[in-house]
Design a protein that fits this description.
By secondary structure, the protein is mostly helical. 63% of the residues lie in helices and 11% in strands. The longest helix has 23 residues, at 23-45. Pfam families: Ytca.
Length: 76
């Protein structure tokens, strides 16, 4: 069992108010919030009808933003 957990020793963790969270979780949260804000902006501007397959489009926005945040903060 200990042999299998050896790969977790170098996983990036972030301290948030005394609790440690995996970095990917924080990046995914930032991506989800940014995609929700982008959806609101697109709705206010009036481009909601021009978005093809909205569910997939906003999911793709979330994934892209998540990866960009990961690369900016944790890419070496």
């Amino acid at each position: 069992m200990a042999l299998g957990l050896g790969g977790c020793t170098r996983a990036p963790l972030q301290d948030v108010l005394g609790s440690f969270f995996p970095s990917w979780m924080l990046c995914a949260t930032i991506g989800a919030v940014a995609a929700a804000l982008l959806r609101a902006v697109i709705g206010v501007v009036g481009l909601q009808q021009a978005v093809p397959a909205p569910m997939l489009t906003y999911l793709a926005f979330m994934v892209a933003i998540t990866f960009m945040v990961w690369l900016v903060f944790f890419g070496h």
